Amino acid sequence: SHNGEILVFISMDMETRIIGGQEAWAHSWPWQVSLQFSSMPACGGAIIGPQWVISAAHCFKRSEVELVGISRIISHQEYDTKTKESDIALLKLEHPLVFNEFVRPIDIWMSPLPETMKCTITGWGSTRESLFRVDLLQEVNVSLLALDDCNEYYKGRVHSSMFCAGKDEGGVDACQGDSGGPLSCFNGTRHELAGLVSWGVGCGRAKKPGVYTKVQQFLKILTFSCSNSPSFQRT
């Protein structure tokens, strides 16, 4: 493949590392997408419609990339590279997906997120801070943490459009290569998309939980952007 190309790879038959996690069962996360730069998994994403994938804006800072399978990338125009606010982007696929048991969209979690609720992060990222990415999709359960606690750990850098998840003592987390991937929460009948892997310090460190974009904060913008909202900008 060409250097710098972005390829959307939708897992059809991969089994399902992430820190402290395990391989996921095949097809158990049918909305999970791998975004590949020069054929290496670089970021994650989630299918939210036949032609739409959601991911993190910080995955798409390069402007010289060649898009494969994607007609455009729409990053939130208020995304701030320093504070990581509005770290959200949409990818429009060239061709609509055909949904089946292996490829399916995920709905967005719309009710308040209860503290301590357990949710699941999935991705092909590193299994340890220094390790490279893995070939099999990984999953790990994390607990949502109170915003106040999180801001103690991060000295006030976690804004209301973000939330933290992990464990105070560390050991479970997303890592390099998981960025933009989904944090999915079970609502009693099915999983819904609550967060996108955004930032953190290291991977799985004590009192340094992962920080996630709170997707429900951007629902109006997401709805408009699918019909060319000015709140998102093309890259």
TrEMBL record:
InterPro entries: Peptidase_S1_PA (IPR009003), Peptidase_S1_PA_chymotrypsin (IPR043504), Peptidase_S1A (IPR001314), Trypsin_dom (IPR001254), TRYPSIN_HIS (IPR018114), TRYPSIN_SER (IPR033116). One of its GO terms (molecular function) is serine-type endopeptidase activity. This is Peptidase S1 domain-containing protein. Coiled coil: none annotated. CDD domains: Tryp_SPc (cd00190). The keyword Zinc does not apply. Residues 18-227 form the Peptidase S1 domain. Belongs to the peptidase S1 family. Snake venom subfamily. Keywords: Disulfide bond, Hydrolase, Protease, Serine protease. It comes from the Eukaryota. PROSITE patterns: TRYPSIN_DOM, TRYPSIN_HIS, TRYPSIN_SER. One of its GO terms (biological process) is proteolysis.
